[in-house]
Design goal:
It comes from Streptomyces achmelvichensis. The chain contains 29 helices and 26 strands. The protein is of the alpha/beta class and 921 residues long. The protein has five domains: 224 residues, no CATH class; 110 residues, no CATH class; 37 residues; 252 residues, Rossmann fold (3-Layer(aba) Sandwich), CATH 3.40.50; 157 residues, Response regulator (Rossmann fold).
């Protein structure tokens, strides 16, 4: 009758043999046939000890006589009112489970638990929001080094100062040791943590699903999402800490039981992990709370690797349903049924078994326990050494076969299927990103042919410059060419935002026209610097922008003729990262579009020809306040549509609400499912979230129906505007007409083949424009020159999109951006005294930093007078802005504010005799 430890035998209560038989079968049940097992709660009234004696016997049963038979952990009785610290139960369990791993089953590694333990015990993190996730990562890696000898050794090597002298070898060691042994392992740790905790797109991990249930959307970065779990002290939110740590622990235990072909230790783990609790205590005790989280987590994860038994259950909470057994024999029958048939989702997570102190002389129990005094576990056929040798043999054969498959094609002549050549590489969406000459590698998709045509035009113009300069003598005093890189999303993967809707095609046309205009002047006069343009594809919606910026910086370090970068047409967080990379490399940058104010704060090498979003939003607010937008009357309320994940949308929306007034503004937050950065930006504008574009249309219609003088202000992207209008048309019976005031990005919707009025005929559309060249042509020679160049290039193209781009501010802004950078290059060249070899990026940055001489120039979008950082800013003050009323024909200018040309500043707007003042900044 004795078990592994004679001091703790299982009492021979009636029916205990059926319960122990079921327990043994569930512990050693094969992995493939396992299902979730309910937590067994041995309930006893008063101060009885029957349940505690059974738990002690089970613990002894798994110890065996000479070695541990199954991994287990035992929690002794906790006195009433003496709850342990929040983490003590977890530490006790994990330590015992690691110590009771049977021989030949390897070391128990609890990666997810250790990682989340480091998170919940991290001190409160303060400072810049953009840096907090990095601080949390560093803290977790420091904790990781405490138990990983490899990580600790690498860190020690990277931190050693080997330079006792000054030899080249010692200096080289100091140069490479930190990045190689500290930063690289930490980056690898961060990558593995993200992959382990988030899973993949098609198979999210438990943590990603847990965060999705908490916040509505899955995380994209583990350490950013885990900031919500940092409270400085675990005791501040013990239930939440228990919940997340329990999920992590069970996920690790399930993972530890999964067999791997190349891991013989895992194949020898043939038993479940058993958790034993001596005394569960009353309903609100620490152990009972722990058990409740254990049961919920086992159900959530469908955990099959853990079997828990708790004795001393004095009372039960009614929060979780249980299976009620009449005694030990009944409980044994229930468990045998579960062992044979499994548990279905939704079944109770616990089974309550009443036990009382009775005589220990039940003959059936005495006889059975005498025949089976201890747990019987399967014996592996091969020892660990033989399995390791077999695994190594299989691995060697597999490597040989793989090497043969890889090398044989090369022997036959080689075959390079990589479509990305030169300074391009495969990006996030499987398209080539990076830097290329002209159209090479870009614009191959069916919706990108127009983009490819412009890239080919730029490539031809580059060739014309090279041909013209090839015949010059070495002592020629005229300037040589300089290279400018256009930085934007040139391609899109499957279901991505194509370059037409994203505004890239319009910008590229402006760049190509400006390059042709600049080079014609430069080659004719010999006193200006001709330009060569390279195209840098930043990926769909700038997803690959930081990596591409790194590639540009590498090229610029090797090629001093690269003068600067133009582009950055979309304000996104990846755009910010790219600007910081280029700013660190000392490369001047000029923006081609109206962007968030935050963009100017990313680096002092970035300059902007367009007004900031705050100025545009202030002007839109003035227009929404005074213009007759809604059926010939001014609007009384505004439904403001914004995307909480988009930096541009947040900047425009927050500034508009501040200028127009929060009391009159209802903010609707809509984020598309394919958002490149699904997490909200730091300090995102607050409002009412709507999950789908259909719900957004319904909310807008409801607002218009309630108050007909409600205007819609669209600060989101144009790519969602068309979908919104299509949904609005379905509810047109509720709101047959709506008035929309859009930001400058809405103009991208006007360049598509399908116009907004085709989707919803009841639309009245107003939109901000950063320069309407047809209006300025009479006052501005530069605007007239731009229109002439555009008509010369595209007069034969009579498609609606080409006509719309002639009136679109994006094309003219891109023209002005390249003209601005070219003017800086020309002024920098003049300061060299016609010594071409002295013209470099540092000199150009000095000119731009101080401000262009002569007070700037008249551009196609109004006066350009960015007076440089030394003068207080890198953006033109009182830059020209317009609000146009769209139509299927020619748009009408409703508002024009700012400086058109030197001496021509528009300070008021509106009908004659009823003018309104323009914002002045």
């Amino acid at each position: 009758m004795s078990t592994g430890d004679p001091q703790n035998r299982i009492p021979a209560y009636p029916g205990v043999e059926r319960f122990i038989d079921a327990f043994d079968k569930l512990v050693v049940q094969p992995r493939r046939s396992r299902s979730r097992v309910p937590v067994v709660l041995l309930s006893e009234p008063g101060d009885g000890s029957a349940g505690r004696r059974i738990v002690a016997g089970l613990r002894s049963r798994m110890r065996g006589r000479s070695e541990v038979l199954a991994p287990h952990a035992y929690i002794p009785q906790i006195p009433d009112g003496a709850d342990p610290p929040p983490l003590e139960l977890f530490e006790h369990l994990t330590l015992q489970l690691a110590e009771t791993m049977p021989p030949g089953t390897g070391e128990l590694r609890l990666h997810s638990y250790r990682l989340l333990r480091s998170v919940v015990t991290a001190p409160a993190i303060e400072g810049l929001m953009e840096r907090r996730h990095a601080e949390l990562r560093n803290h977790c890696y420091a904790e990781h080094r405490n138990w990983s000898r490899t990580a600790q050794t690498l860190w020690w090597l990277g931190g050693r100062d080997q330079a006792s002298g000054g030899t080249l070898l010692e200096l080289l060691w100091n140069f490479i040791a930190g990045p190689l042994f500290q930063r690289l392992p930490r980056a690898l740790y961060s990558w593995r943590a993200n992959r382990r905790m988030l899973g993949r797109a098609r198979s999210r991990s438990w943590y990603a699903e847990w965060v999705r249930r908490q916040h509505g959307s899955p995380p994209t970065d583990f350490f950013r999402s885990a900031l919500d779990l940092v409270h400085g002290e675990p005791a501040t939110d013990p239930e939440r800490m228990d919940r997340v740590l329990m999920h992590a622990l069970l996920a690790d235990l399930d993972q530890a039981c999964r067999s791997r072909m190349l891991n013989p230790w895992r194949r020898r783990r043939t038993t479940r992990f058993v958790l034993l609790f001596d005394e569960a205590g009353p309903a609100d005790s620490r152990v009972q709370r722990f058990l409740r989280e254990l049961r919920s987590a086992m159900e959530d994860l469908r955990c099959t690797s853990v079997f828990a038994v708790a004795g001393g259950v004095r009372s039960l909470a009614s929060r979780i349903p249980d299976i009620d057994a009449t005694g030990l024999a009944h409980a044994g029958a229930e468990l045998i049924n579960i062992e044979r048939r499994g548990m279905t989702p939704g079944q109770p997570t616990g089974i309550v078994v009443p036990v009382t102190e009775v005589p220990e002389d039940d003959q059936a129990a005495v006889y059975w326990l005498g025949r089976w005094p201890t747990l019987v576990t399967p014996s592996p056929r091969w020892g660990p050494g033989a399995e390791v040798a077999g695994v190594l043999g299989v691995g060697t054969v597999a490597l040989a076969v793989a090497a043969a498959l890889i090398l044989v094609p090369d022997v036959r002549g080689g075959n390079n299927d990589d479509p990305c050549q030169g300074s391009t590489f495969l990006g996030t969406d499987g398209q080539c990103v990076g830097v290329a000459e002209g159209a090479a590698g870009f614009g191959r998709g069916p919706s990108e042919q127009a983009v490819r045509a412009v890239l080919q035009q730029i490539e031809r113009q580059n060739g014309e410059v090279d041909t013209e300069l090839a015949g010059r003598r070495a002592d020629d005093r005229r300037p040589g060419r300089r290279t400018v890189v256009y930085f934007g999303p040139l391609t899109g993967g499957k279901d991505a935002e194509d370059p037409v809707r994203g505004g890239t095609l319009a910008e590229l046309r402006g760049i190509a026209l400006a390059q042709q205009h600049i080079n014609a002047q430069a080659l004719r006069s010999g006193e200006r610097v001709p330009l060569r343009v390279l195209a840098a594809n930043a990926g769909d919606r700038f997803k690959d922008a930081p990596a591409v910026a790194e590639r540009i910086a590498e090229l610029a370090a090797r090629d001093p003729s690269i003068a600067g970068v133009v582009g950055f047409g979309q304000s996104r967080r990846k755009t910010y990262d790219a600007i910081r990379v280029l700013d660190k490399a000392g490369i001047p940058m000029v923006g081609t579009s109206g962007t968030a104010d935050e963009l100017l704060r990313q680096g002092e090498h970035y300059y902007q020809t367009a007004p900031t979003d705050s100025r545009a939003a202030e002007l839109m607010a003035v227009f929404a306040t005074s213009a007759a937008m809604t059926g010939g009357q001014t609007a009384l309320r505004v439904s403001l549509v914004a995307d909480a994940t988009d930096a541009y949308s947040n900047s425009l929306a927050a500034s508009f609400r501040s200028s127009y007034g929060p009391a009159r503004t209802d903010v609707l937050l809509y984020t598309p499912n394919d958002a490149p950065e699904p997490e909200p930006v730091p300090g995102a504008v607050s409002g009412r979230p709507v999950p789908t574009v259909e719900d957004l249309a319904r909310e807008v219609c409801r607002a218009v129906q309630k108050e007909p003088r409600t205007a819609v202000v669209w600060s989101a992207r144009a790519s969602q505007f068309q979908l919104f209008l299509a949904e609005i048309s379905r509810f047109s019976g509720d709101c047959p007409k709506i008035s929309v005031l859009g930001g400058d990005d809405v103009t991208n919707a006007l360049t598509e083949q399908q116009r907004p009025w085709d989707d919803f005929t009841g639309l009245t559309l107003f939109y901000a424009s950063h320069g309407y060249a047809p209006t300025l042509a009479k006052q501005s020679p530069e605007a007239a020159a731009f229109l002439t160049a555009y008509d010369r290039a595209y007069s034969t193209d009579r498609t609606p999109s080409t006509k719309a781009m002639r009136e679109d501010g994006h094309v003219a802004l891109a023209w002005d951006a390249l003209r601005y950078l070219a003017e800086g290059i020309d002024q920098a060249w003049r300061t060299t005294g016609s010594h071409d070899d002295r013209l470099d990026r540092g000199l150009l940055q000095g000119v731009l930093y101080q401000g262009l001489g002569g007070g700037g120039f008249d551009g196609a979008t109004g006066r350009i007078d960015a007076h440089g950082a030394a003068g207080g800013g890198r953006v033109t003050e009182n830059k020209l802005l317009a609000v146009l009323r769209g139509s299927n024909g020619q748009p009408a200018t409703e508002l024009l504010c700012g400086t058109v040309t030197r001496g021509d500043e528009r300070r008021t707007w509106g009908p004659k005799g009823k003018e309104f003042p323009c914002p002045q900044r």
